[in-house]
């Protein structure tokens, strides 16, 4: 296994209100090397790549992609070459660090101007010994990692580690996390529903991806696809100007989260935590579980040996705009 499970569930007492308890699922700690939600997806993806005799992983993402970085960390550790086709995203210090860490890990980075262009570059790299992982690691294999996560949560509830949540509040990016969780909750017969906070575009397509993965996962594990899909309620009002653009609510939520010891990022978790805080404010239900998907492992060790910005290929730096 790449990660360390189960990840803890913890109450966020200072941020709860009478009648509405906020909890957190610490998937920021799936690994002490590089945590977050991509680790669970890579458990099955890299095992599948190995089983097929692949030597090279080819993947795709935004310039500061957590998925690409996680694939770099664990893919390299498992002995794969890693090619990443990267597309532009708004420049933040965090995104630049992720890109520099990719380079330090020896990823072959190929810039592309859009996802359409990226598809062509990916096709050109795919060969007999290569294994393709789509954006965010969100295909059936990757999403099944989040069926496992829902089963893990169910066991924690049964063991009395937390009350059964009415809602899980979680980020909806490429859909694998939400899709897998929805199928897993259906499989476990939990009453929990999912407030899926859309942070990627176009929102309608992202919703379709999540539903499709929820159904595919449900079919694979013998749960009801309709039950899985019904659990997902999407909110898009936290997206702001679009993927990767920080929002004022997100920035406020980041300050609040820091007071409770949680670090957020502007692209994914700040927007989601803002939604979780609003849900508490509205006393949406007695028990809410914010599912923390961002790595909290220090990036410094991954940046030792990374090129300084001044030495990064300008064609790669131009991806951060
Ligand atoms: C990738 C990512 C997500 C989105 O997960 P999907 O399975 O792609 O929807 C959420 N949070 C963080 C921090 C991520 O890196």
Alpha-beta classification: alpha/beta
The pLDDT mean sits at 97
> How many DSSP helices?
12
Separation of termini?
37 Å
Judging from the principal axes of the Cα atoms, what is the shape? globular
Bound molecules: pyridoxal-5'-phosphate
- In percent, how helical is the residue content? 40-55%
Question: What's the structural blueprint in terms of helices and strands?
Answer:
Elements: E1 9-11, E2 21-25, H1 38-51, E3 56-62, H2 66-77, E4 81-87, H3 93-104, E5 108-111, H4 115-125, E6 130-133, H5 140-158, E7 167-172, H6 176-188, E8 193-198, H7 203-221, H8 225-230, E9 232-235, H9 248-259, H10 269-281, E10 287-291, H11 300-303, H12 314-317
Helix pairs in contact: 1-2, 1-5, 2-3, 5-6, 5-7, 6-7, 9-10
The structure holds pyridoxal-5'-phosphate.
Pyridoxal-5'-phosphate (PLP) binds next to helix 2, strand 7 and helix 6.
Q: How would you explain this protein's 3D organization?
A:
The protein has 321 residues and is an alpha/beta fold. A six-stranded mixed sheet has the order 1-2-10-7-8-9, sandwiched between helices. A four-stranded parallel sheet has the order 5-4-3-6, with helices on both faces. The chain is built from twelve helices and ten strands. The chain is globular and about 55 Å long. The protein binds pyridoxal-5'-phosphate. The site of pyridoxal-5'-phosphate has 19 residues, from helix 2, strand 7 and helix 6.
């Amino acid at each position: 296994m790449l990660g360390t499970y189960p990840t803890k569930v913890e109450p966020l007492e200072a941020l709860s209100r009478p009648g509405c308890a906020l909890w957190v699922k610490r998937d920021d700690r799936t690994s002490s090397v590089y945590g977050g939600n991509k680790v669970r997806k890579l458990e099955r993806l890299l095992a599948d790549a190995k089983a097929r005799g692949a030597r090279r992983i080819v993947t795709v993402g935004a310039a500061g992609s957590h998925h690409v970085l996680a694939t770099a960390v664990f893919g390299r550790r498992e002995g794969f070459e890693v090619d990443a086709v990267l597309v532009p995203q708004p420049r933040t210090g965090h995104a630049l660090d992720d890109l520099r860490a990719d380079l330090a890990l020896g990823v072959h980075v190929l810039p592309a101007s859009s996802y359409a262009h990226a598809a062509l570059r990916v096709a050109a790299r795919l060969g007999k010994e290569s294994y393709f992982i789509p954006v965010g690691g969100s295909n059936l294999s990757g999403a099944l990692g989040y069926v496992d996560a829902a089963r893990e949560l169910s066991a924690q509830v049964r063991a009395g580690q937390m009350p059964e949540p009415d809602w899980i509040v979680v980020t909806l990016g490429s859909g694998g996390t939400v899709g897998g969780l929805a199928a897993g909750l259906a499989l476990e017969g939990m009453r929990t529903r999912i407030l899926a906070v859309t942070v990627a575009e176009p929102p309608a397509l992202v919703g379709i991806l999540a539903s499709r993965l929820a159904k595919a996962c449900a079919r694979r594990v013998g749960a009801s696809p309709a039950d899985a899909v019904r659990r997902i309620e999407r909110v898009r009002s936290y997206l702001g100007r679009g993927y990767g653009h920080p929002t004022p609510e997100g920035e406020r939520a980041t300050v609040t989260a820091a007071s409770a010891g949680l670090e957020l990022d502007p692209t994914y978790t700040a927007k989601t935590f803002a939604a979780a805080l609003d849900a508490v404010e509205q006393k949406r239900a007695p028990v809410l579980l914010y599912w923390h998907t961002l790595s909290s492992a220090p990036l410094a060790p991954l940046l030792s040996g990374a090129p300084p910005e001044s030495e990064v290929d300008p064609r790669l730096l131009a991806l951060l705009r």
